[in-house]
Amino acid sequence: MITSLLLDQKPDALLRLENKINECCPNVVVTAATNCLQQANQVILERKPDLLFLDVETGGAPLFNLSSTQVSQDLEVVFLTNEKSLTLDVMKKCSIQYLSKPIVDKELIAVANAVEFNVQRKKEATEIFPAFSKLTKFKNDLIGIPTMEGYEFIPAHKIIRCEGLQKCTRVVTQDRSDIVSSYNLGVFKKILQPFGFFLPHKSFLINLSLIKKFHKEGTITMIDNAYVPLARRKRNDFLNLIPRLAGQRSNLLMR
């Protein structure tokens, strides 16, 4: 079952949405409904629901920079908006989960199914990824990447970088097409850091052995000629790694 929180400034809208969820989405349980952002924040911290239905007007603007105290990384968010809302086009372009008011049953069901899939993947991660970590001890640097179809197993040294896409991750490799995983970048950071990966920016995780060039203005070029930003707060950490990287490459050339 998926636990959900409803946040809308209009009490009648909250009641209609809760009734629709009860009628159309048997796997979604409404744990709380409120028109107060502060109260919703408290519910998130204490009850840790899987899903938040957030009305655009209640949440305030911009909605796409919710603080960590309001929304955890694992919380799925579905925005509620009017067809005439200026944010609707933005959400479409960013592939953000949303429902247009008045809410249509089939659209609510479709969104609920998508959220259920994401929540299930995250819950599986707590059991499956530790198993993959143990597997690498016997298979060199082989890791399993969860996808829509199942899992793809590839050596970590063939991964060039991982890019955060909302709550998914795009894995760019040397010898195959990109892989899109439903797991967020934080999960890949835990798995890949022991294999020489570095987080130069909140949205990128790179393979240090596959760096081609560092630019002083604050970017990194990878072997596929893609540019990756280097955050200012990460600059010193990265520069401290350069002598070690140079030493490793010298050893490889001497062999």
List the helices and strands and how they pair.
Blueprint: E1 2-7, H1 11-24, E2 28-34, H2 37-47, E3 51-55, H3 56-59, E4 76-82, H4 87-93, E5 98-101, H5 105-135, E6 142-146, E7 151-155, E8 159-165, E9 168-173, E10 179-181, H6 185-192, E11 197-201, E12 204-207, E13 211-215, E14 219-222, E15 227-229, H7 232-254
Parallel strand pairs: 1-2, 1-3, 3-4, 4-5
Antiparallel strand pairs: 6-7, 8-9, 8-12, 9-10, 11-12, 13-14, 14-15
Describe this structure in words.
The strands form four sheets. A five-stranded parallel sheet has the order 2-1-3-4-5, sandwiched between helices. It is built from seven helices and 15 strands. The chain is elongated, with a radius of gyration of 21 Å. A hairpin with a 2-residue loop joins strand 11 and strand 12. It is an alpha/beta fold and 255 residues long.
- Uncertain stretches: 61-70, 134-138, 249-255
Structural class: alpha/beta
**Average pLDDT:** 79
Number of strands: 15
The rounded distance between the terminal residues' Cα atoms is: 56 Å
Task: Provide the CATH top-level class of the largest domain.
Answer: Alpha Beta
How many domains would you count in the coordinates?
Answer: 2
